[in-house]
Amino acid sequence: MSASLFNLQRDHLTHLQQTYTDLLASHRLDSVAIYSGHANPHFGDDQAPTFQTYGHFMHWVGMADIQHSWLVIQPEKRPQLHLYAPADFWHLPTHLPEEPWVTEFDIQLCSEKPLPTLAGRAAVIGDIDPTTQLALDAQYQPQPLVNALDELRMFKTAYEIACLSEANRLAMAGHQAAQAAFIGASAELDIQLAYLAASRQRESDVPYQNIIGLNNHAGVLHYQHYGLSSPTKRHSLLVDAGRRFRGYCADITRTYAGPDAPSLYRNLIDDINQLKDTLVESVAPGVEFIALHEQMHRLLADILIANDLFQGSAEQAVDEGITRAFCPHGLGHSLGLQVHDVAGLRHPDGTPAPAPEQHPALRLTRTLRPGMVVTIEPGFYYIPMLLEPLRNKTLPINWSLVDLLANCGGIRIEDNIVVTENSQQNLTP
């Protein structure tokens, strides 16, 4: 761990300690106990699915695989980490890295699953059994406090931004390898394995299941399989894949045209790339993310018209829902310890800020402020179930051109963006 990163992490921990102290005072609490969580085994088995540490625990510790452990925060005291580390000849026990940040905690290694004792007015948060008793008058999962902690995570410290930047750097190595594998006529599984090798991670460590879609699979927004055979025709590849660094997630998407793609598809990839760049340049403090999402649809309408896919006006393309049929998802979301990070659909005071009725898939409705990190990911897809209703309407859609894209599936380009004091910083190389 570099000295500069540790200094940033130390400042991050100092910031958390002060903010938690203020929040505990405002909520009239003496302490908060945060449970790391744990994975539950599959039914009738002793094997468990991939696990991710509870976000507010990870906010302090920065490790994504800590189970059955507790973190206790009290004003004017060092954080107390009760780390479950049993003697086990079946598995390598949990251990902390030999890094300077560990000295910032009071750490107790526990061979049995710990249950810290709390005094005074305490809150307990995390995915816990409600019958767990840590203190007689403890508040379990008090929503006002959880909302406030979610809001705290909305604004990243310099340490967090450094971690997100490094996660992006590592992920981009994977994306370059995926592109090379596609050029080499690999199957989806081979492209996935190339991505994992180049980004230096095992499949259980990825922050979300990578989307590796060849041809029409690129039009399935969360395509969940990896084909074992290379297709005889190579029209397209969409790779939506990430990486963690100290718990923080990169979420990057790239799309490539294959040798069998029509020229129209190649032109659309260029246009969506330019659309992404335009939207990134529009990110700034005070900008409403809903307004950016609506700007995406207006620019998508221009792309439809410029490529002769729609022969009406841009206003008609938006008002008739045509752009939504070609791009049904939101422009982006908050990014951090979780890929779809917390508080994106709440106002700063914790009250709901739901997506507007006409854009129900939007995951972020906030006014952008310095320190927020968001994704910008415009898309364009050939999805039959969404396009079919338009065929029954009298609309100036050039279906002969649209149907040329059927084998290509779709396009998505996604970068990770920090909102700075005056503008933005693109973390995605």
What fraction of residues sit in β-strands? 15-25%
Adjacency order of strands in the biggest sheet? 4-3-2-1-5-6
Topology, number of strands: 14
Annotated CATH topology of the largest domain: Creatine Amidinohydrolase
Q: What this model shows, in words?
A:
With 429 residues, this protein is an alpha+beta fold. The chain has 2 domains: 3-154, 3-Layer(aba) Sandwich (Creatine Amidinohydrolase, Chain A, domain 1); 158-426, Creatinase/methionine aminopeptidase superfamily (Creatine Amidinohydrolase, Alpha-Beta Complex), CATH 3.90.230.10. It is built from 11 helices and 14 strands. The protein has helices spanning 3-26, 55-61, 143-154, 158-183, 188-199, 263-282, 289-306, 314-319, 322-326, 384-391, 399-402; strands at residues 31-35, 70-73, 80-84, 106-110, 122-125, 139-140, 211-214, 236-245, 248-257, 373-376, 379-381, 410-412, 415-419, 424-426. The chain has a 6-stranded mixed sheet. It has a 3-stranded antiparallel sheet with strand order 7-8-9. The two termini are 22 Å apart. The mean pLDDT is 96.
Please tag this protein with its features.
429 residues, alpha+beta, Creatine Amidinohydrolase, Chain A, domain 1, Creatine Amidinohydrolase, 2 domains, six-stranded mixed beta sheet, three-stranded antiparallel beta sheet, 14 strands, 33% helix, globular
List the topology elements.
Layout (H helix, E strand, L loop, with lengths): L2 H24 L4 E5 L19 H7 L8 E4 L6 E5 L21 E5 L11 E4 L13 E2 L2 H12 L3 H26 L4 H12 L11 E4 L21 E10 L2 E10 L5 H20 L6 H18 L7 H6 L2 H5 L46 E4 L2 E3 L2 H8 L7 H4 L7 E3 L2 E5 L4 E3 L3
Parallel strand pairs: 1-5, 3-4, 5-6
Antiparallel strand pairs: 1-2, 2-3, 7-8, 8-9, 10-13, 11-12, 13-14
Helix pairs in contact: 1-3, 1-4, 4-5, 6-7
